[in-house]
Design brief:
Layout: H1 2-20, E1 31-35, E2 44-50, E3 53-58, H2 60-63, H3 68-83, H4 93-110, H5 113-133, H6 136-156, H7 161-178, H8 182-232
Parallel strand pairs: 1-3
Antiparallel strand pairs: 2-3
Amino acid sequence: MTSYTTSSARAEMNELRRLKTLLPPELQSWVMVESSTEVNPPLIRSEELGKDEVEIQIDLAKWENLAIDQRNLMFWHEVARIQNDTIPKEGWEMAALAIGLGGAVGELWVQDGLLLLLALSLCGISGYRLWQKNNGEKNLKDAMEADEKAIILATRFGYSLKNAYQSLGSALKTLIEQNPKRNQRKKYEERLQALRRSATRLNNGKHKIRAINLYKLPLLLALVVVLECAIFN
């Protein structure tokens, strides 16, 4: 039993070290990769520890259910979120909302119009920021943009576009099958659909370029013939 525990811990440390090597050079000095210590944590998430320090936390128990290529693309998705500055920030909104509500109730009692207006303004600003953070449509848009950037990151590390799209798509399919929460499955499904649309657009673009090149080929051959005739005659 002790041997198995030691072996498992070693494998986890090796995986964390491997993932650190997948960080772009510009992130390696201030982004850390650690195992999550929460109870029932998400598969992967990022947390801002300070002004210049971010930690990517991974649930290694769930992580093992993914193939290496799937892990890589899910990891780069999280890296892309850091680069896009869409990870959760240290929250001040709840504290500000509580202060604003408390101030508003107090000012109603003492009937100070100016301070009441300031307290209500604080409530409005903090409430709007909380709404932004929990806006499902915006969060989904951010996730889709991170998927697109993860594909680009994968090509920096030697993946072809086709393999990058396939690996991320298969990872999302696996998460859809394994996730028991309906809302989370729906988010993965929408990301997968967006990824397929992106791959289709890319494929159609390649076909158009190929068709244009084939159309121009006879003209180029004719031009070569004309030039040869002009030179040798």
